[in-house]
Amino acid sequence: MNILYEDNHLLVVEKPINIPVQEDSSGDKDLLTLLKEDIKIRYNKPGNVYLGLVHRLDRPVGGAMVFAKTSKAASRLAETLRKQEMEREYVAILRGVPNKQEAQLVNHLWKDGAKNKVHVVPAKDKRGKKAILDYKTEAVNGNSSLVRVQLQTGRSHQIRVQFAAIGCPLYGDQKYGQHVNRVGEQIALWSTKLAFPHPTTKEWLSFDCQPPSEQPWKQFY
Question: pLDDT tens, position by position, for the chain (221 residues)?
Fold first, then answer.
C-alpha cells in the first residue's frame, strides 16, 4: 500500500483501483479492512484497530484518500467536509469534448439504491440532492479529452453522472456510458489531490497523487 502521509491522527493513502473502500456484497477484501490489518501488524497492536472512513471513492477509481485514526479526527474531518473546506481534485478522461473549456456543472441527483445507479432529476424533485463540480479541459486527443475536476459536493457517482449528462461519459464507464465503452475497459477517474486543515494542529495539508503511467492515461501523461 502506498502511504502518502501518516501521524497519530491521520492516514493518507493511494487507493488501488478495483478495491471497494468498505465491505460490500461482493465479499471481496476492502481497503478499510486491509488498512486496519496493516496498522495492527506494523504497530503490533492488540485488539481491534480504529480507522474512520471520512469520504469514499467508487470501487474502480484510484488515488488519494484520507482516513482518521481517532474518533476525534474523524468527527473534525467530517465537519471539514460538511463545510466544504476540503479540497478534492480529480482528473478524468472523457469520451467526447465538452462544449465549454471551463465551466461549473450543477445538477440534482437521485440514487436508486436497489440498482446502485444515480439519475439526474428536475430541481423540483424532492428525492434529488444538489450536485456541483467545476471542471477545466486540459487536453484533447481526437474525440477524447482530459479534464481536471474540483468537487464542491460529494454525491454518489457524481463526476460520472454529471459528465454523462452533458454527453461526455467517462472513458471505461459501463454504467453511465455503455453506448461508447466496452466491457473490460478501466474507468479513467483518479483522485489527484486532497488538501485540508489538520484536525488537531490546523496546519494546512496538501497531498498529490498522479495516475499510473499506463493506458488510458498514457495518451495524456
Answer: 899 999 999 999 999 999 999 988 778 899 999 999 999 999 999 889 999 999 999 999 999 999 999 999 999 999 999 998 999 999 999 999 999 999 999 999 999 999 999 999 999 999 999 999 999 999 999 999 999 999 999 899 999 999 999 999 999 999 999 999 999 899 999 999 999 999 999 999 999 999 999 989 999 98
Positions of E strands within 33-164: 52-53, 62-68, 87-95, 102-112, 117-121, 129-141, 144-151
Residue 182: count of CB within 10 angstroms of its CB: 8
Residue reference for cell 436497489: 114
Torsion of CA 159, 160, 163, 169, to 10 degrees: 150
Instruction: Give me the catalytic one of 28, 30, 38, 58.
Output: 58
Which amino acid is it at 6?
E
**Catalytic: 125?**
no
pTM value > 0.85: yes
